[in-house]
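Need DB module's 3D structure for a figure. Predict it.
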Amino acid sequence: MPKEHEIFSETANKCLGLGCMAARARAARTYKDDAGVVHTVTTQEPNEHFSTCCSLLDVPESCRHMCTFDGYNTSAIQSSLTFSFPCPATALSQIQFCAARGVDHSQCCQSAGISPQCLLFCDQRPDQSNELSFSHLQCLDRFDSMKDCFIEYAITEYYREKQSAHDSLDKSYQT
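Structure prediction for DB module:
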């Protein structure tokens, strides 16, 4: 029987690369050009990608409001860690993974002044996932800076995907 971490890593890998595979299918936009050729553009906005990743990782419904960049904030994390709201603290590592898109943001976090003991939350590659706990409450002081790194990356990827889709369409018109 696979261990919970192996299942998480296997599912998490579905959200890496250019985006969540299921989400890409759901987010696909198709249209016919003047010649009747069908084109597909598959870009996903950062919050849509975040939310889809949480769905793929089976983040509990009671936590889904945290699966957007606005909803994932220090107040929501503190509420979860102190059990003052129904989102179990065990789901926070999955939400952190989705916010970071399973990528290592350590360099950005270091530049943003994240302390060395908190950098582990910037590296969200599947084999590096870490559980949040009371001992990490000090990391919440710089959480917004950490999240800014995630957002910057997500927005950059979004526009890269849009540009790539646009370039592909341009090539199809030229041929």
